[in-house]
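ARCHIVE RECORD
Type: protein–small molecule complex
Small molecule: S-adenosylmethionine
Source of inputs: curated submission
Record status: active
Notes field left blank by submitter.
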Amino acid sequence: MSSLLNTPAARQSLQLLRDLIEERTGNFFSDPNLPLLALKLENRLAELGLLTYLDYYYLLRYDPHSDEEWRQLETAITVNETYFWRESEAIQAVAQKLAPERRPGQTLRIWHAACASGEEPYSMVLALLEAGLFAWRDIEVMATDLDRRVLEAARQAIYRQRSVRLLPRNWLERHFEELPQERWALRPAVAGRVSLRRLNLVEEAEFARMPKCDFIFCRNVMLYFKEERIPRLIERLVSALAPGGCLFVGTSESLLRFAPALEFGECGGSVFYRKPDHG
Ligand SMILES: C[S@@+](CC[C@H](N)C(=O)[O-])C[C@H]1O[C@@H](n2cnc3c(N)ncnc32)[C@H](O)[C@@H]1O
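STRUCTURE (tokenized, with ligand):
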């Protein structure tokens, strides 16, 4: 446990900091997880030469240049684990079945709302390419994340072997260039099909800039949020869906108790939540 945590006052100021982080980013550290938060902050406090959590709290809350510090903090606290072809049934369901049937003749919009370093939206593009969909449909793939560092990695689109391990070998050879040291660069023609930008799922105003989407993937991020925050987030995601559009969450995240207004759907072994056509 961090040495900063060994007094009741230190614990109290860490709780204050934890609540501020939750309010701004949604990411929540319960009391038993406070030592984990302390660990994630340890290096940053040392770099800044700060001796208490309260000093850091004041910096984040009141310093006129706190924006840069929030960037660092967002990188420090988020869990960015992801890889190509993760929970691929949902991606295949969209590419093979749901997208081809959806609103023929109109632009299809797919949004990956917590894309980390890009493996999820790029998997979608690969699946759509392999299904031949780009040849006959206008498709926009948008990808957003809170953490600017992972967005930069997504822009570079160079991945290690571990990240591409589940992709079929012939896809790897077709769509990536092999680099030294078992790294793979996604071809610009594929990477260029995804537009990347920062979007904080907690900030309501940011949703206003999103066009209505046919498919939203918001996977493996709500599990880091407080349960009380989820209904509001779902409401916003649903408001970004076009009527009849579908929301996909991670396989370990269920919305059944939060989103009674959504229809439950299943396709190719994946489940999703559909906004009613009249919604
Ligand atoms: C575990 S990754 C999931 C990546 C991908 N969706 C997947 O399932 O493989 C969680 C991502 O959520 C992002 N995240 C956390 N809080 C966020 C927020 N408030 N707004 C947007 N993204 C957030 C993190 O930066 C991280 O990249």
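CURATOR ANNOTATION: The chain has twelve helices and ten strands.
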